[in-house]
Amino acid sequence: MPNKPNVLLVGAGGVGAMASFALEYSGESSVTSVLRSDYAHVVENGFKINSCDYGRGIRYRPSNVVNSIEASKQYGPFDYVVLATKCIPGVSSMIDIIAPAVSKDTAIVLIQNGIGIEDEALFKCPGNVILSGVSMIASSNVKGHIEHSDRDFLSVGYFENVNLTNEHQEKVCKRFVSMYKNDKNQCVFDENVKYSRWRKLVYNAGLNPVCALTEADVGRLEIFGGTDSIIRKAMKEVIAIAKSDGVELSEALMDFMIRSKDPVYYRPSMLVDIDKGNPLEVEVICGNPVRIAKKNGVEAPYLTLIYDLLKVVQGRIMEKRGMLIVPKERQVPK
Amino acid sequence: MPNKPNVLLVGAGGVGAMASFALEYSGESSVTSVLRSDYAHVVENGFKINSCDYGRGIRYRPSNVVNSIEASKQYGPFDYVVLATKCIPGVSSMIDIIAPAVSKDTAIVLIQNGIGIEDEALFKCPGNVILSGVSMIASSNVKGHIEHSDRDFLSVGYFENVNLTNEHQEKVCKRFVSMYKNDKNQCVFDENVKYSRWRKLVYNAGLNPVCALTEADVGRLEIFGGTDSIIRKAMKEVIAIAKSDGVELSEALMDFMIRSKDPVYYRPSMLVDIDKGNPLEVEVICGNPVRIAKKNGVEAPYLTLIYDLLKVVQGRIMEKRGMLIVPKERQVPK
Predict the structure, then answer these.
(1) What is the pLDDT of residue B1?
(2) Fewer CB within 10 A of the end CB, N or C, for chain B?
(3) How are beta strands B64-66 and B30-34 bridged, if at all?
(4) Chain B residues touching A303 at Cβ < 8 A
(5) What is the bridge-based pairing of β-strands B145-150 and B138-142?
């Protein structure tokens, strides 16, 4: 099977593990999975998956399991390198990390949240196809145990690379869609990546950070008044910024997103990161929209304050993880 | 000593315990202290006080120690009832609680944070003098052990009660000042209560809630960028709202307040409440200024969002304390 597409998958949280499973489900591609904390466990036992799409009690071990990019190279070259990690520029550059596994024909697939996430990849890999994956799954990984509770819906398009023809980028993208899609999940070719990403941001830039800041799930946020007092205002700002960026979103989306996890007391990913003490996706979810608002002269006081508050929380998290050090004696002006 | 003023002191946190000590220090008044969690310990051992004003290792037991307002009545009638509790309308009405100990000649002294805290007292006790105490102390009480680290400065005035003459109110107020003041602390008659309370709010409405929301002390807040990005904007809004309420505050106050705890990594009272899981003084510190802004047509998006976020946090704290119940099944629109 020399022509079976070869995929490197980096990041095996709830999203990454299910992407890996989907890609191998129909046998149309071979996945090498880079794991860190779950490595030994998955080598020995595989993932245990309870899935609303595929069934419960599934054992799944990717074709190859490695614990570093360096080690993955023995299974290359790769047609696709899929990044299903958090996107936290300033904390780590995933593009630099995957570079050794990227050859000139590798397409890089970013299944990540936020706006402006493609800039670094387009800049550092000017000859490669860069794909956008917008995932609407609900899935968590606790020590190799995957709980997948809400249907896998992945929309894949390409971030336009002016050095390549659109025909080529579309072909590479559609090939990925056909590998990913099966009779249990949904995967579609996304003709308008920019629209899809702004659309998802209506959810992410409002509910995600506000739940993180208040440590309330979406249900409690609503009961305690925050959905009406905060979320609708923040979402309106996202819609206005998107418009200034050339993307028209309907205001009806606001209620669609607010109701999208009914009737679950759902904890959005950024709140889960708070629970776990993980760094937050502050810049791609909050920072980039705020910068676009500023550049385009759009008033966004709510998103701006939410961003500024989250940056302080991020500092606290990074200090706790030893990623930055606060001086013992506080330095103050004389 | 039939003319020695008789004081009931409710609330023996860091502020209340030091107020009790100050009032008895020169022997010019007699204090009955109402304690709850520290009652048994203080009856037996007194408070242990380490004070920057009075010295270390002091043992102090108020003249009378009781565990309820009902029990305090045996030591009445009281010339002054001092409230040094948190002010949390909607959670508990302290005016209703102290009512049995208030007679027609009792002055009620509110040593509490916030704006608009006098409304309930003036409404429910229309014949009584209501005093305002603005305290600039730093003092904490951990199980009867008082750490008093920053000088006791108390400014006392009267909330104008139109049913009484100003001469009478001033006399009652100045008597309290003379009882409280001694050679170790500072206590002054406050000619302009409204000014003092708005002035202190420049600190309280900015640093207090933002440190609570981000769980960062004032030093970390500054290092992580929040002092410049958030606090100055919030403080400017407080100054604008104060102006709309007839109080002119200098912008130089902002830096004075920002630097006031240098060089300590200071945790403001609302952050300490978060640490302890206590209800927050949301309404008197954030809610009332926001309502005044709205009434007077002053734009205050930062204070409004901070208030709305804190209300959600308050809901979460109250749920955890069993003060409100969230339905097991989330109620959602059909």
Answers:
(1) 43
(2) C
(3) parallel
(4) none
(5) antiparallel
Domain A6-191 has what CATH class? alpha beta
- Residue B107 CB partners (closer than 8 Å, separation 6+): B79, B80, B81, B128, B129, B130, B131, B172, B173, B176
Cα A139 to Cα A17: distance, rounded to the nearest angstrom: 9
Amino acid B186: pLDDT: 96
Cα separation of B166 and B108, whole Å?
16
Which of A220, A225, A316 is facing B220, going by the closest CB pair? A316
Interface contact flag, B312 A263, Cβ < 8 Å: no
Q: Is A302 at the interface with chain B, CB within 8 A?
A: yes
Residue B27 structure tokens:
């022997």
Residue B122 contacts by C-beta under 8 Å, 6 or more apart in sequence? B130, B159, B161
**Per-residue exposure over B196-207, b if at least 16 CB sit within 10 Å of its own CB, e if not:** bbbbbbbbbbbb
Inter-chain contact B305–A308, Cβ cutoff 8 Å? no
Contacts of A233 in chain B (CB under 8 A): 305
| 8 A C-beta contact, residue A49 and residue A58 | yes
Contacts of B109 (CB under 8 A, 6+ apart): B80, B81, B82, B83, B131, B133, B156, B176
Residues of A in contact with B229 (CB under 8 A): 308, 311
- Can you state the angle between helices B14-25 and B166-180, rounded to 10 degrees? 90
CATH superfamily of B196-320: N-(1-d-carboxylethyl)-l-norvaline Dehydrogenase; domain 2 (1.10.1040.10)
The answer to whether the Cβ–Cβ distance between B216 and A313 falls below 8 Å is yes
Which residues fall within 8 angstroms of residue A251, CB to CB, at 6 or more apart? Answer: A236, A239
By 3-state DSSP, what share of chain A in percent is helix, strand and coil, each rounded to 5?
Answer: 45, 20, 35
Chain B residue with CA closest to A264: the answer is B330
pLDDT averaged over 10-residue windows placed end to end, chain A, 334 residues: 83 94 94 95 96 96 97 97 91 91 97 94 97 92 93 95 97 97 96 95 95 98 97 97 98 95 92 94 96 98 97 97 95 89
pLDDT values of chain B reduced to their tens digit, one per residue, 334 residues: 457 899 999 998 999 999 999 999 989 999 999 999 899 999 999 999 999 999 999 999 999 999 999 999 999 999 999 999 999 987 788 999 999 999 999 999 999 999 999 999 999 999 999 999 999 888 889 999 999 998 999 999 999 999 999 999 999 999 999 999 999 999 999 999 999 999 999 999 999 999 999 999 999 999 999 999 999 999 999 999 999 999 999 999 999 999 998 999 999 999 999 999 999 999 999 999 999 999 999 999 999 999 999 999 999 999 999 999 999 999 998 8
Q: Residue B92's pLDDT is what?
A: 81
- Could you please report the per-residue DSSP string of A47-86? EEEEETTTEEEEEE--SEEESSHHHHGGG---SEEEE-S-
Domain extents for chain A?
6-191, 196-320
CA dist B93 and B83 (Å) reads 11
Q: Peptide bond before B77: cis, by omega within 30 degrees of 0?
A: yes
Q: Which of B236, B290, B227, B226 is nearest to A307 (CA)?
A: B226
Distance to chain A for B151, nearest Cα, Å = 20
